[in-house]
Amino acid sequence: MPRTPPAPAVPGSGACARTRGEHLTACEAEVEQEGKALVHAVATFALLER
């Protein structure tokens, strides 16, 4: 018997700057679908003055 694929769900996302210092910023982001985390990302950026 063939299976019916599940209906597609729209993923949601959120992001924020966790810490911002004089020279570094740490950011965090998460993508969720149906209340479950799919992806979690953390990034650090150097703030340069030109």
Automatic annotation (TrEMBL):
Q: Which PROSITE patterns does the entry mention?
A: PROKAR_LIPOPROTEIN
What is this protein identified as? Thioesterase superfamily protein
Q: Which organism is it from?
A: Blastococcus carthaginiensis
